[in-house]
Structures are given as C-alpha cells and as structure tokens.
Amino acid sequence: MSATGRVTFGSAVTISCDVTLRGTLARTHTTTAGAPIGAITAAQSGSCSGGRITGFLAFPWSLTLNAMLGTLPAAATGYSMSASGMSLELEAIGVRCLYAGVVALLASLARTGTSNVYTTGALTFLAGAIPLRSGGFICPSSGGVSGTLRLSPAQTVTIDPGPAIPRLTAEFERVVEPFDGTDMTISNDADTGDDDFRINEIGLSDAVAWEVDDADDCVGDELSPRADCSFTLVYFGDDDERPRTVTVTVGTSVGPVSLRVTVERVED
C-alpha cells in the first residue's frame, strides 16, 4: 500500500513536498481505541518548495486506531488514527532541524454497493505539531504537518456487525376486570439458525406497582429463531392508578432489548 500527495511541514518556515508513504495495514483489527492497524515502513519526497526533506527516519511508524467515525457498521465514514514515531529532518536556509513524534491521520471511507463494505479514499494529516528533537537554535520548537494523500491501491474494508441484537416482539392476553396483570409471550423474530440467544433476565425499567412472575420458562434458556417463551406481568397497585404502558427490559447474551408494551384492559 502507498499514499501519495502534497504535504506541508513547519510553522514559521514551511516546506512543501510531494511525499509518498509506503506501509501495511492489518488484515483484521478491532474497532477499539488503541488497536494496532498497521505501520508506515518507508517514505520518500520530491519536488519541494521552501526547503527540502533531507531524510525520513526511525521506521516503522506504527499506526493505531483512535476511533471509527460515523455509525457502525452500516454508515462508517472513516478511521481516525495515530502514526507514532514519525521522524524527519528538514532543511531550510542552510539549517537542519530534526522533528519526531506522533501525528494524527484521518482515512476516509466510501460506501460500496455491498452492506458494511467500504473502500478507502484520502489520507489526511489532521491539525497538530511534532516537537523538535535536534537542530540549530533558529529551529522552531515544533513543526506542523498538513496535507492530503491518496491511497493506492484503494483498500477494501469490511466491518463485521458482530452478534445481531435480537429482534423481539411481545404479546399479551386481553384481560377483564378486576385487572391484576397479564400473561406475556416474547418471540424471537429472526429467520435463521445463527440468530439464537440466551435470555439472562427479564425486568421492568419504568413500571410502578408491576413485577415479573413465572419467568422460569424464559430466563436461562436459548431462544431459537421463531421460538417464544412466556411469563406473567403482575399488577399490585391501586385500580385508579394503573399505568397503561410498561417497558419490559430483556437482558440477552448479545445485549439488552427494551419492549414498550401498552396493556389493554377490557370490561367484562
């Protein structure tokens, strides 16, 4: 993989050069901040103005993930990453200055026609500066890096959505007065055999004078696609204060799911 473009270095005195970076990207990595995602292993410059780059040093420069941008997995927009150990020597007006440190980069992602699959676009140096390591007394104490490079060849990035959050629905029985609760059924609406999950707990997040009863049929068991299980919602409050809605919180092996339920009361 390589990235080529015009990059500007410096602060008080700026040097602009055509730069090509070469390196590798990890075939797989997590989306956790700090995850290693590759390295820059070589660099070269040419066609400079304002001075020149006399050398890129201290390879490899490791690449680590700061954050994935956008909404994962279906609407990612890019990678924010850091290049650690970037080191280069600049020369202007006969003075050489060595700078080394960490720089921030942004790699853009463009959607393809396939869900959760992207191609890489531009690689941009974000605002920041790297400190002076050695050089003459007139060398600025830090130097900025800015510019945009184009990755070649474009890389294909596939974001694994991870375990599917269960698609659950809840049904309840119509009840008559006096109203003291309702039997409920939770169904797994997934269509495939890979979408089974375990129910760890069933609770109520915003209900007063309600409780869950007879949930042994659900809690602790695997709920396969198109399967269901039942429990009871019990109401023990005053008749005049009965809420018409409750939120059932289902804790599963792949994440929590909340079901907003409107309880219907029918006069006999």
Query: What's the main sheet like?
Result: 11 strands, antiparallel
Number of helices: 0
- Radius of gyration equals 29 Å
Measured distance between first and last alpha carbons: 74 Å
Q: Low-confidence spans: pLDDT under 50, at least 5 residues? A: none
Helix-strand category: mainly beta
What portion of residues belong to β-strands?
Answer: over 45%
Oligomer: single chain
Query: How many β-strand stretches?
Result: 21
Shape: elongated
Order of helices and strands: EEEEEEEEEEEEEEEEEEEEE
Mean pLDDT figure: 84
Notable characteristics:
268 residues; mainly beta; 11-stranded antiparallel beta sheet
Write a concise synopsis of the structure shown:
The protein contains no helices and 21 strands.
Fold blueprint:
Layout: E1 2-10, E2 14-25, E3 36-49, E4 52-57, E5 61-71, E6 75-92, E7 95-111, E8 117-125, E9 129-135, E10 142-152, E11 156-158, E12 168-172, E13 175-176, E14 181-188, E15 197-204, E16 210-213, E17 222-223, E18 228-235, E19 245-252, E20 255-262, E21 265-266
Description of the structure:
The protein has strands spanning 2-10, 14-25, 36-49, 52-57, 61-71, 75-92, 95-111, 117-125, 129-135, 142-152, 156-158, 168-172, 175-176, 181-188, 197-204, 210-213, 222-223, 228-235, 245-252, 255-262, 265-266. It is built from no helices and 21 strands. The model has no long low-confidence stretch (mean pLDDT 84). The chain starts with a strand and ends with a strand. It has 268 residues and is mainly β. Strands 1, 2, 3, 4, 5, 6, 7, 8, 9, 10 and 11 form an eleven-stranded antiparallel β-sheet that branches. A four-stranded antiparallel β-sheet has the order 12-14-18-16, with no helix packed on it. A four-stranded antiparallel β-sheet has the order 17-15-19-20, with no helix packed on it. A hairpin with a 2-residue loop joins strand 6 and strand 7. 0% of the residues lie in helices and 64% in strands.
